[in-house]
Structure formats: structure tokens, C-alpha cells
């Protein structure tokens, strides 16, 4: 190539940007303005120091994935109207969920469920699927699958819930020996876990006084079986870190954490997990559970604390239930839900947070008992509503109550809950 041709080529290359600028002058200026405006918005937001996890890269990521969000965040800050809800209002995700997405945080302890404007989380008390106890022989004898032990309307409620939680009050194994000196020991074959699928159960609690009934080998089988059947659990593990690990659901753009601990045994036989051995998470001394709640709250929008406690077959509360439930709420729990007492124990509120002291038995034995389904509803703005659906356990079968019988149970709960107003439809709230 001649020197003249090379020179001409260089001149053409240099002229191209000038030609583009001449033909599209406004576009270039507009892009520059947009970039400058974005930088100014980002710098302004950062100047407020609203969260140490928010930096320039995160805000640029927000701008790319959720256009028009940053100017509204900036305006709320400038007008002194900023609160965390604005992130959800603008993106349908809380700030914590956005940060998780930005940092690509995901693991097998986080499950995202289909978004809905109102999240319904249902809870039931003690469940026994043990082959050597009352419910499973009737399940087999009636040969109707789950309809042999639960009414259709209950099954519908459970399966239509966005998240369904049950207390797993038995060990899951075909091996092991009953713990010596223990009066009641419950064991189910692993195939019984299919019943949880029929019930629509999404999470089970294991921090209780029966998950270790058949010793270490059956305890480990229980964890293996739940994992094999893809049923998440909390409150127990092969070591203390596993036992403390929360389980998270991402629902409607909110991160909801579940944690579980037990203080249920008068004579303590169920081992506490350690750094090297399996067992449950205990809260006889509440310190570790308090610390867990604090740590979990830092990375969750809502923390649901489930505790196995209370006097068996008594509506009388132990003082420790009253005291530690407040400590757990002070630590960051948004609601406390109890099991173990085999009977309903009433509701309360502390710092605008609900305490459901005990849900009692749900499908457990051959006794006739009032029970029910507690439902927590979380709306699009993160507000809570609370409902209780009365049920009855009778003849190894649990069914939903209506009309006078439903009213009877709600009235009974009202007597046990002096600080709470319970409506005829089962909704309850703090008495004003």
C-alpha cells in the first residue's frame, strides 16, 4: 500500500467520529446528559449512607435491571420520605432480596416460590406419622391415603397455602433402638414421608423431643430421608451449625427466614447438636437462639421463630414462655409460634408482634382434642394479618370446624388471650 493510501485511510478513520457527531449531534449530547444525570443520582443516593451494602456498582446494576427506580429513590431521600418499603414498591423486591440477586446468593436452603400479592403461610402443630402409634394404622386400614386422616377442606387449605409448615414429632427410619428410659418413642418408615407430599408440607420442624427417639443411627436416617424426599427441615442437624441453619423462602419479593429450637423435656434425653455430633438446637438457655435470631434478621426481611415448649396438656403458660418470647422478639423475630403442649394455649402480642403460644396436636393420637391451622398473611407492603382456623382431632382423624363448633373454639381461645381480639372469622389482632 502506498504512503498516500495510508494517509487517506488514517484521515478517513479520524473523520468518522466527526461525521457521526455532525449527523447525530443531539444523540451524543443526550447520552452524555443521561450518563451525567445517572452519576449525579448515584452520588446523591450514596451521600445519604442508607446502607453499607449499597455501593456504586449495585446502584448501576439496579439502573440496568429496574429502570426509573433510582430517581424515585433519590426523590424520596431528598424529600425525607425514604423507607425500606420503597425498594419493594419500585422493583417488587425488598432491598435484601435485591442485594442477594446482585451478589448471586443462592443455595439449597433458599427456595423461591411463585409471586403473589398476598403470601399465606400456614402452620400446624404436632404431627405423628409413626408406624408404632395411632394415626398410621388407621391410615392403612381406611385405605384412602391422606383422606383417611384429614378432611378434604383441610387438605385444600394446606395445599393452597404458599408455605405449609408442620412439626415433625417422630423419627424416620427402619433402624435403631428406642432410647432407654423413655416412655414414648415414635418411628416411621421413610415411605411415610409421601404423606407430607399429599398434605402440601413445604417445611418441617425437628427441634423437639421425639426426633432422636431411636438413637443416632435413626436420627441420621431421618435427616437423610427428609433430604431424599426433598422436604426441608430446621432445628436439627449432623452438627450444631446444621441445626442452627435457617431455611429461607423468597415470596412476593420478600425474604422470609424460619428458625427452630426446643426446650420441651423435663428429663432431657434428646441430645443437643455440637460441633462434631448430631442433635437438636436447644433453648433452655436462650442465648444461642437469641444470637441466631439476631444474625438471621440481618439478612432477612422477616424471621419466624418456632419453639417447642410448654406444659403438656395444660393451657397454663410457663413463665419462661412469656419471658423468652419477648427476648426473641427483641432479638428480631417477627412472630413466635409454639408447639409441644398437645393443647391450644392462646395468643398474645408484644411490640406489635404476635405470639402463638401453642398449636397443640394436629394429627397425633387417638384422643379427642381441639386443634387448628394458624395462618399468617403478608401483604404486598409487608403488613401482617393473623387467622386461626379451628379444627378437631377425633378418632385418628382431623377435620375443619364450622358454625357453632368453630365459634366454641374461638371463644375458648379468646378466654386464653386477654390482650387479643378474635373475630368470628378467626382473624385476630392486638386489643386496642
What's the helix and strand layout?
Elements: H1 3-23, H2 25-47, H3 56-65, H4 69-78, H5 85-91, H6 95-102, E1 110-112, E2 119-127, H7 135-142, H8 152-160, E3 163-168, E4 171-172, E5 187-188, H9 194-199, E6 203-205, H10 215-228, E7 233-234, E8 236-237, H11 240-244, E9 247-251, E10 254-262, E11 279-280, H12 287-297, E12 302-308, H13 319-331, E13 335-339, E14 347-350, E15 353-356, E16 361-363, E17 369-378, E18 384-393, E19 398-400, H14 403-416, E20 420-422, E21 427-430
Parallel strand pairs: 1-9, 2-3, 2-16, 3-6, 4-5, 6-7, 10-12, 12-13, 13-15
Antiparallel strand pairs: 2-17, 8-11, 9-10, 14-15, 17-18, 18-19, 18-21, 20-21
Keywords:
37% helix, globular, alpha/beta
Query: Spans of 5+ residues with little confidence (pLDDT < 50)?
Result: none
Gap between N and C termini = 91 Å
- The mean pLDDT is 94
The structural class is alpha/beta
* Strand tally: 21
The radius of gyration is: 28 Å
Describe the sheet with the most strands.
10 strands, mixed
What is the percent of helical residues?
25-40%
Strand content: 15-25%
C-alpha geometry: globular
